[in-house]
């Protein structure tokens, strides 16, 4: 069993008890950890060989000429010691190589150091392909920022699918943060997350075309616009089917369904996705392509493919958006970037 965290007192008057965190060590058969990375109060004992494989930052800087002097000589297996250095604005931080007796004052840091420690732990887990949990959008955002800085985006992207598919899918609501997640997914080059965010963006009739002002990258706006046009083409075909209904009884049923699909809290506008769903499952029109649910994460929550009430929670959205691999905003054949 790992030893408990130790406590020490700082100062003499009104001494504050400080918890000294035990190091988190990543064991690898046949290899001893040879590098210490101290992120704020948390030390990680890891292997330089793995860092160099999956992080271009450490590959470039760990043994650079100006870092040779920082290699430790008296700590047994530990050959490198890096600690946290606060950015000049006190909002950010980064790791720097220091001699074994190096220290650094981080008391002025304005961010959440514990959050940064937890997210850096997840980055190391990704490098070691160990399980980790994404517990919020903020956690995902910070992990991507760290992976970007330490140039470890490919390994995070490759491990993220398993994390999202096998973890608690309620931790991240892609629908709520779809614009930001689309940009993060593009940076990660993660197909699963990119498609999930895209589906929520282009399928919402409540925020139609709002992506034009919500996405800074014009490439992403263009992709959303094209995917949206594909849905609108299907919507146009559905309206044509409605216009082709000649039977008076059917016409009355269409009118009744239109009333049932109105948003009573917003001026009586018709929820088009819900309207088409009701017509489709009554057999009045065939809009199977519009009824498709292309989501993977939390799929059942957004079910539109069955004639039940679950989709009524999202009456303003289609979930049939899609994008082919060749239309993704990155080269899908590249393994490293």
What does the model show?
The protein has 337 residues and is of the alpha/beta class. Helices cover 39% and strands 10% of the residues. A hairpin with a 2-residue loop joins β4 (35-39) and β5 (42-46). The chain starts with 5 loop residues before the first strand and ends in a 56-residue tail after the last helix. The model has no long low-confidence stretch (mean pLDDT 87).
Shape: elongated
List the total number of helices: 11
Q: Order of strands side by side in the largest beta sheet?
A: 3-5-4-6-7
Level-1 CATH class name of the domain at 6-172: Alpha Beta
Radius of gyration of CA atoms, rounded to a whole number: 26 Å
Kindly report the CATH topology of the domain at 6-172.
Potassium Channel Kv1.1, Chain A
Largest sheet: 5 strands, mixed
Helical fraction equals 25-40%
The fraction of residues in strands falls at 5-15%
Number of strands: 7
Q: Structural class, from secondary structure content?
A: alpha/beta
Mean pLDDT: 87
Do you know the CATH architecture of the domain at 6-172?
2-Layer Sandwich
- Give the ordered list of helices and strands: EEEEEHHEEHHHHHHHHH
**CATH homologous group name of the domain at 6-172:** Potassium Channel Kv1.1, Chain A
Oligomer: single chain
InterPro entries: SKP1/BTB/POZ_sf
Protein name: BTB domain-containing protein
Organism: Phialocephala subalpina
């Amino acid at each position: 069993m790992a030893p408990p965290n130790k406590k020490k007192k700082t100062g003499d008057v009104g001494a504050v008890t400080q918890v000294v965190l035990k190091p988190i060590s990543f064991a690898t058969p046949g290899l001893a950890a040879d590098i210490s990375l101290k992120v704020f109060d948390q030390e990680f004992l890891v292997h330089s060989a793995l860092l160099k494989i999956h992080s271009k930052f450490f590959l470039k800087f760990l043994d650079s000429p100006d870092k040779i002097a920082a290699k430790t000589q008296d700590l047994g297996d530990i050959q490198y010691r890096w600690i946290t250095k606060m950015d000049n604005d006190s909002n950010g931080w980064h790791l720097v190589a220091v001699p074994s007796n190096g220290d650094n004052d981080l008391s002025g840091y304005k961010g959440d150091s514990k959050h940064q420690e937890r997210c850096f732990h997840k980055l190391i887990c990704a490098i070691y392909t160990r399980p980790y949990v994404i517990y919020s959008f903020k956690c995902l955002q910070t992990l991507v920022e760290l992976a970007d800085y330490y140039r470890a985006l490919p390994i995070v992207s490759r491990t993220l699918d398993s994390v999202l598919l096998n973890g608690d899918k309620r931790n991240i609501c892609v629908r709520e943060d779809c614009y930001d997640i689309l940009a993060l997914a593009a940076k990660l080059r993660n197909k699963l997350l990119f498609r999930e965010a895209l589906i929520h963006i282009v399928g919402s009739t409540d925020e139609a075309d709002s992506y034009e002002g919500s996405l800074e990258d014009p490439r992403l706006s263009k992709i959303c616009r094209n995917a949206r046009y594909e849905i609108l083409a299907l919507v146009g075909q559905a309206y044509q089917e409605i216009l082709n209904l000649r039977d008076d009884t059917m016409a009355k049923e269409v009118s009744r369904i239109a009333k049932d699909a109105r948003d009573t809290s917003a001026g009586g506008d018709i929820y088009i996705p819900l309207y088409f769903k009701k017509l489709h499952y009554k057999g009045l029109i065939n809009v199977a392509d519009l009824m498709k649910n292309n989501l993977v994460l939390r799929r059942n929550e957004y079910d539109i493919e069955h004639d039940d009430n679950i989709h009524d929670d999202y009456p303003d959205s289609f979930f049939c958006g899609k994008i082919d691999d060749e239309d993704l905003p990155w080269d899908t054949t590249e393994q490293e970037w």
